[in-house]
Design a protein that fits this description.
By secondary structure, the chain is mainly beta. The protein is 5% helix and 56% strand. It has a 22-stranded antiparallel β-barrel. The protein has a 5-stranded mixed beta sheet with strand order 6-11-12-9-10. The radius of gyration is 25 Å and the shape is globular.
């Protein structure tokens, strides 16, 4: 994920082939970790083709068409009452109805994902009004909640079926590597606000939990394929069947190849993406009411981005396997045990590094291999009539092995760490309509030792369909390897930028007040106000008197505040409308006596306001119409001591679907229809990528 920091001083720069050697800006090496546009991101190449081998699994198995074939007919709309009764787990780590979940949570349903026409997981997250999402080109996204949405966004915890997908290199997510067959995602739960009490470090500003469907819900054969001028190829295959009574399985494969985005002058940015993924899932005991349920699942992916203009490429690979056993002890008690192993590889070509015209570090390739073993135990029970308790233990071992390049290094190259955790939470019923939830997570990390993340949450049910809640929470962002172990360039050269071995955890204390309600059978609303106090945020300091080298420090503090509003109206059984509004104000300052070369601007790249309006309409003769209008305020980002901007923009996405038959569906999707091209992220300059208007078709067949 290459790009560059640009500090407008001195004469140290990182040169890409074909770049402007006359640029005297100070630039940190393009390395996929320390980056802000103007250097472009990498682009498409060949990806794994193993997804095609899944067809072999079809031989010798009987088809179970009814379960999945009926699904197309069920996508006619979820009522307001159905949505409010959806059970979510990201708030309390146990099932509870969305209407009664005392948190700023939004749910992206399977119906919404399919009818949006999204082809990537990151694109589907645009449907959450409480997220900031910006597309950086064909192969990259910046996604966060309640601010701090840089390319190195590190305050959002993301999970897929309970497996954490952030990288300890920078405590963020390689979004281009995260995916699934979107047809098989049951829902995406998006919580804005701290979740550290239950989920631990890095759940600072929010939690995204992607939950895929039980294998019993995906029997039969499913095929999809499509493309267009900007989507070269988008295809997927899945087959599922019953293996034994109450035992179901599925296998799937997906391949995606995206064309280049463009530069400001309309020329190709050469930043396309190709990605292949294959996986499986097996579920036992989930449909018969058994006390025990078991899930085994795993997948493998390979991603390639290639910047042909700069002769650089970035490659990602990964594989994982997860098992989960759940036992229902009684109607008010259950426990679960989950374990997974995850391997990821990040490989990036790092260009040479220059001081003036002198090469101080030649070009090379940086590679990072991360092995993760994670164990998680959770127990939920009721104690007497007033206490609903959830507690659990966790252990995670990570082995991170970096093969350094001359211009980029992590020292030590290999680092093993252990994370031990304990959490407990008690929901105390004070009165029939009033309850207090208190709890904390306690962790011991390899870098900072003991950490604690408590919260208290008061909820008051005004009526059966109205909830008022308030909360105060503390959460931390534990140091990543980039904060402590980074060296640019690698020794024995003199460093230009390095991490601080004493870098501390970033901290937030958050205050929230919210109201969620279902007004009759056709209207629902959610309003949340928040105020967050931050301390020990990351800054890039200078060496006194001599300026270089730059180093990371904990010298930034301040606060943010804002409002998140969402409303839904079911105008008729066939027509629904959803609207959202976000306000975010950020006030960050550098601690007295410290310096920051970006004047406290480097950690934020966020619009002050966002507005969204979406509608879904079922027409006669099997036609479906969906449209989404979004307005994003001016975005202030940073690549030096002076801020840059991305202009505000208004965009429209449209999907027209046709249910040709019970088994066959065709859709045409238009993206960014109001402009030929526009930027959503990046520092102003000729190298900033822009998103084009696009049109593609998709055919889906199931049996």
């Amino acid at each position: 994920m290459p790009a560059c920091y640009v500090f407008r001083r001195g004469d140290v720069r990182n040169r890409r082939p074909g770049g402007n050697d006359g640029d005297k800006n100070v630039q940190m090496p393009s390395n996929g970790l320390i980056r802000e546009n103007p250097c472009r991101n990498a682009g498409p190449g060949k990806s794994v083709a193993s997804v095609l081998l899944l067809s072999a699994a079809l031989h010798g198995a009987s088809l179970h068409a009814a379960s999945d074939a009926d699904t197309i007919g069920s996508l006619k709309g979820m009522s307001i009452e159905d949505l409010m009764n959806v059970e979510v787990t990201a708030v309390g780590r146990r099932p509870e109805k969305l209407l009664t979940a005392a948190s700023a949570i939004q749910v992206i349903t399977r119906e919404e994902i399919i009818r949006s026409g999204a082809i990537t997981l990151a694109e589907a997250l645009r449907l959450a009004d409480n997220l900031q999402t910006a597309q950086r080109g064909a192969n990259g996204w910046a996604i966060s909640a309640r601010g701090f949405n840089t390319e190195l966004a590190n305050k959002l915890l993301v999970m897929i079926d309970g497996r954490t997908v952030y990288t300890p290199l920078f405590s963020g997510v390689f979004w281009e590597n995260q995916g699934y067959l979107l047809e098989d995602i049951e829902r995406i739960e998006v919580v804005s606000g701290p979740g550290g009490t239950l989920w631990g470090a890095n759940a600072v500003n929010g939690v995204i939990s992607v939950i895929t469907r039980d294998a019993a819900q995906t029997t039969g054969l499913y095929l999809e394929g499509g493309g267009g001028p900007e989507v070269n190829v988008a295809g997927g295959l899945r087959y599922g069947a019953r293996l034994a009574p109450d035992v179901y399985w599925r296998v799937f494969g997906k391949y995606l190849d995206l064309d280049d985005s463009v530069l400001a002058d309309g020329s190709p940015a050469m930043d396309g993406l190709s990605r292949g993924q294959a996986g499986f899932r097996l579920d036992a005991g989930s449909t018969s009411g058994s006390r025990d349920a078991f899930t085994l699942q795993g997948d493998f992916y390979e991603t390639e981005r290639h910047d042909r203009l700069a002769d650089a490429d970035t490659r990602g690979q990964g594989a994982n396997i997860l098992g989960r056993w759940t036992r229902r002890v009684s109607g008010t008690a259950d426990f679960s045990l989950q374990a997974y192993y995850d391997w990821t590889r990040f490989s990036d070509k790092v260009p040479e590094m220059l001081v003036g015209t002198t090469v101080i570090a030649p070009a090379g390739r940086f590679r990072d291999d991360l092995h993760t073993i994670d164990l998680d135990f959770q127990h939920h029970f009721r104690a007497a009539s007033a206490h609903d308790i959830t507690w659990g233990l966790g252990f995670r071992h990570t082995s991170d092995k970096a093969s350094n390049a001359p211009a980029l290094a992590f020292l030590p190259g290999n680092r093993d760490q252990q994370l031990y955790s304990l959490f407990v939470q008690d929901q105390i019923r004070l009165r029939d309509q009033l309850s207090l939830t208190v709890g904390s997570k306690f962790e011991h990390t390899g870098y900072t030792g003991f950490e604690y993340e408590p919260s208290a949450r008061l909820e008051w049910r005004l009526a059966d369909r109205q909830l008022v809640w308030g909360a105060v929470s503390r959460a931390i962002r534990a140091p990543a390897r980039i904060d402590r172990d980074l060296r640019q360039p690698a020794p024995p050269n003199l460093p230009i930028l390095y991490g601080d071995s004493g870098f501390r955890s970033e901290k937030v204390v958050a205050f929230e007040l919210g109201h969620r309600a279902q007004h009759g059978d056709r209207v629902s609303s959610s309003v949340v106000a928040f105020y967050n106090e931050y301390d020990d945020l990351r800054t890039t300091g200078v060496t006194p008197e001599v300026l270089l080298p730059f180093r990371f420090e904990n010298a930034l503090y301040g606060h943010t505040y804002g409002v998140e509003i969402t409303g839904r109206v079911q105008i008729t059984p066939r027509w629904s409308v959803r609207a959202g509004y976000n306000l975010l104000e950020e006030r960050l300052r550098v601690r007295e006596g410290s310096t920051d070369i970006t004047n406290g601007l480097n950690e934020t790249a966020d619009p002050e306001q966002q507005v969204s309006l979406r509608t879904s309409l079922n027409l006669p003769r099997g036609l479906e119409f969906d449209a989404g209008l979004r307005w994003v305020d001016i975005l202030h980002n940073n690549n030096g001591p002076e801020p840059g901007t991305v202009p505000h923009y208004l965009e429209l996405d449209v999907r027209l679907g046709w249910q040709i038959s019970r088994h066959l569906n065709f859709a045409v999707v238009g993206r960014n229809l109001l402009h030929d091209q526009h930027p959503e992220y990046g520092f102003p300059g000729p190298g900033r990528t822009e998103v084009e208007r696009s049109l593609y078709g998709k055919l889906a067949w199931r049996y």
